[in-house]
Amino acid sequence: MSLWVDKYRPKTLDQLSFHDSISQNLRALARSGDFPHLLIYGPSGAGKKTRIYATLNEIFGSQVEKLKIDVKTFVTSSNRKMEFNVLSSAYHLEITPSDMGNNDRVVISDLLKDVASTEQVDFSHQNTSKTKHRFKVVVINEADSLSRDAQAALRRTMEKYSSNIRLILVCNSISNIIPPIKSRTLLVRIPSPSTTAISSILGQVAKKEGIKFSSSNELDIQKYLVTLADTANRNLRKALLSFETVAMQNETIQLDNKTLTIVTLDWEEIIKNMSNTIRINRNVATLASVRVVLYELLAHCIPPRIILKTLMFNLIKNFKDDAVISQLVDLGSVFDERLSLGSKSIFHLEGFVAKSMVVIDSN
Amino acid sequence: MTSILMQKSQKLDQYEQERLEHTPWVEKYRPRNLDDVASQDHAVKVLKKTMESANLPHMLFYGPPGTGKTSTILALSKQLYGPNLYKSRVLELNASDERGISIVRQKIKNFARLTVSNPSKEDLEKYPCPPYKIIILDEADSMTNDAQAALRRTIENYSNITRFCLICNYVTRIIDPLASRCSKFRFRLLNNENALNRLKYIAEQEHISLDSNQLVLQEVLRISGGDLRKAITFLQSATKLHKSLAAPTEEDGDIQMLDEIPGEAITVESIQEIAGVIPENVILEVVSTIKSKNSKSIITQVNDIISQGFSAQQVLDQLHDKFILDDSLDSATKNKIAKTLFLIDKRLNNGTDEHIQLLDLCLQIAKSL
């Protein structure tokens, strides 16, 4: 019994349903038996990882799905031993260097040199010259959180050992990737799927799972699925997860407009309420009550920057005046920077709340 | 017996051939001697002079990426020593190697004080083989200040048998005492003509079919902004993509065949996509939305850009071009816009949220218009 997200994850490039041209390119690269280093970027839930695995599947066959976890030890420059999990199959390995924090440079240079210094021997495809692979693939997740040091270490490694390894870097945005890396990789942008693409996927899943709707009118169902896709912010994973939750909670999904069943996460709901209070009651008492809520949110491990972002977007939603919106967004951007530089997040979150009250008041 | 040997050597050849196909063009077409180095006339001239007298100063190469700094020193040392002696005479260290203070104290010092190995007779005839070793410190600006300080004395102590070559992008990151011990060479951005010739040469060698030849190569150059390495990598990526797209889809298509297929011609658009550049029409749309000054439509537009996966940094760059070069704006406005651009760029570099920053950027520009 697995989640729908995993159950209906496409395994091969042919099963992928949206962004056909990207799949086409990947297939072509896979068929040629060789590809340059790739840098795959796009918002979350757009199918980056799925595409990578489908491509690897196309190149190496289903062997890549047989994953195992190795624990590797590294010695940092201060002679401290570090353990690090590496997910690997016979043909590729996958690492998330941000697990290592400040020592990611050591991991990157040690691991890659280790892998790169040996040439891959491919016994299974030996006879067909086309599918001879001399290289191993290394997938690096969250490449945008690699430190500058680690990225600098990647530069020369990428060139020097390029006949033995191929890197696939995965990240949400390429703003934090240093230019030398960008210039050494083939950039593949994967946009979020459109709402229609998501709703059609949800529809297929609903059919396969035999989900019952309260009305059998195709249009109503369609409308419901589109709303689901919209609330998930065009994030396919989120949409599927929330759809599954709804389906688990209700035997038949109600489609009448009044009782439209859509799961919103409770912390999102809380932040929404908070933004309403801020807008209506602008005084010190509200600030004190907001502080309690903020502490509660932080205690539940909601990242402060997500809180700030959600709060800001909820606030500006309710204003029509251009000046107010512009000032609020400016505040958001200032405090976002302070959040990422500072260490005690409650100061900055409260600061944002207080400042935004002032801005709303003065207009 | 001979036939077996023949087969073996053939296999080896084939192996070498395949390896060559897998190496990036940047390596494949790295200049082999100083004459091949494109458009760094000044540095090349001086280096050639020093080669004749076989006396090299300590050197500091600096300049933007992709201008041929590493290529120049590699070519120079190959010309000085030849392939045999190269291994024992040249030590190349870059940012991917550990270069903390301990390495400077041990590895570099050890290599620096080694006595110079004797060249063989053949080498002496063919190459100058001067009596010193070369230590190349690539990407020296990523060395810590302590490590650089530790180098100071080492450089002087062993200067009779060792020459240092530091390579960096920003000369300001090299500590003064170190910089003053080296003769500096500035590598300027490549001018279009030379870079274009090099690209043309590679395109010819690799039999690339280009859609309206000149335009595509010029676009490659424009996007890469004088960085030849970037330009060559773009060209290679594009070629690979297009060749495999045009390849026969049958499973039994031979890899040898693949190279003979001319492949689909490379277009300007595909180069742009590979480089991660945002299409012109999208940027124009953003500009017109900003000029409309309607907050709601700006919000939706920014939302759209973010879910398209474009990077905020790239949007910033391209908006910069659009607004600063816009003649219909007066200087005061441009001033304000430039300040906004600077602020947001700084914030993005501090690792902030792209969505918020991009939205702020667009709204602030709209306000100052």
From TrEMBL, chain A:
<dbReference type="GO" id="GO:0031390">
    <property type="term" value="C:Ctf18 RFC-like complex"/>
</dbReference>
<dbReference type="GO" id="GO:0006272">
    <property type="term" value="P:leading strand elongation"/>
</dbReference>
<dbReference type="GO" id="GO:0007062">
    <property type="term" value="P:sister chromatid cohesion"/>
</dbReference>
<dbReference type="GO" id="GO:0031389">
    <property type="term" value="C:Rad17 RFC-like complex"/>
</dbReference>
<keyword id="KW-0235">DNA replication</keyword>
<dbReference type="InterPro" id="IPR027417">
    <property type="entry name" value="P-loop_NTPase"/>
</dbReference>
<dbReference type="InterPro" id="IPR008921">
    <property type="entry name" value="DNA_pol3_clamp-load_cplx_C"/>
</dbReference>
<dbReference type="GO" id="GO:0003689">
    <property type="term" value="F:DNA clamp loader activity"/>
</dbReference>
<dbReference type="GO" id="GO:0031391">
    <property type="term" value="C:Elg1 RFC-like complex"/>
</dbReference>
<dbReference type="GO" id="GO:0006281">
    <property type="term" value="P:DNA repair"/>
</dbReference>
<dbReference type="Pfam" id="PF21960">
    <property type="entry name" value="RCF1-5-like_lid"/>
</dbReference>
<dbReference type="InterPro" id="IPR050238">
    <property type="entry name" value="DNA_Rep/Repair_Clamp_Loader"/>
</dbReference>
<dbReference type="GO" id="GO:0005663">
    <property type="term" value="C:DNA replication factor C complex"/>
</dbReference>
<protein>
    <submittedName>
        <fullName>DNA replicationn factor C</fullName>
    </submittedName>
</protein>
<dbReference type="Pfam" id="PF13177">
    <property type="entry name" value="DNA_pol3_delta2"/>
</dbReference>
<dbReference type="GO" id="GO:0003677">
    <property type="term" value="F:DNA binding"/>
</dbReference>
<dbReference type="Pfam" id="PF22534">
    <property type="entry name" value="RFC_C"/>
</dbReference>
From TrEMBL, chain B:
<dbReference type="GO" id="GO:0005663">
    <property type="term" value="C:DNA replication factor C complex"/>
</dbReference>
<keyword id="KW-0547">Nucleotide-binding</keyword>
<dbReference type="GO" id="GO:0016779">
    <property type="term" value="F:nucleotidyltransferase activity"/>
</dbReference>
<dbReference type="Pfam" id="PF21960">
    <property type="entry name" value="RCF1-5-like_lid"/>
</dbReference>
<keyword id="KW-0067">ATP-binding</keyword>
<dbReference type="GO" id="GO:0003682">
    <property type="term" value="F:chromatin binding"/>
</dbReference>
<dbReference type="InterPro" id="IPR047854">
    <property type="entry name" value="RFC_lid"/>
</dbReference>
<dbReference type="GO" id="GO:0006272">
    <property type="term" value="P:leading strand elongation"/>
</dbReference>
<dbReference type="InterPro" id="IPR003959">
    <property type="entry name" value="ATPase_AAA_core"/>
</dbReference>
<keyword id="KW-0808">Transferase</keyword>
<dbReference type="GO" id="GO:0016887">
    <property type="term" value="F:ATP hydrolysis activity"/>
</dbReference>
<protein>
    <recommendedName>
        <fullName>Replication factor C subunit 2</fullName>
    </recommendedName>
</protein>
<dbReference type="GO" id="GO:0005524">
    <property type="term" value="F:ATP binding"/>
</dbReference>
<dbReference type="InterPro" id="IPR008921">
    <property type="entry name" value="DNA_pol3_clamp-load_cplx_C"/>
</dbReference>
<dbReference type="GO" id="GO:0031390">
    <property type="term" value="C:Ctf18 RFC-like complex"/>
</dbReference>
<dbReference type="GO" id="GO:0007062">
    <property type="term" value="P:sister chromatid cohesion"/>
</dbReference>
<dbReference type="Pfam" id="PF08542">
    <property type="entry name" value="Rep_fac_C"/>
</dbReference>
<dbReference type="GO" id="GO:0003677">
    <property type="term" value="F:DNA binding"/>
</dbReference>
<keyword id="KW-0539">Nucleus</keyword>
<keyword id="KW-0548">Nucleotidyltransferase</keyword>
<keyword id="KW-0235">DNA replication</keyword>
<dbReference type="InterPro" id="IPR003593">
    <property type="entry name" value="AAA+_ATPase"/>
</dbReference>
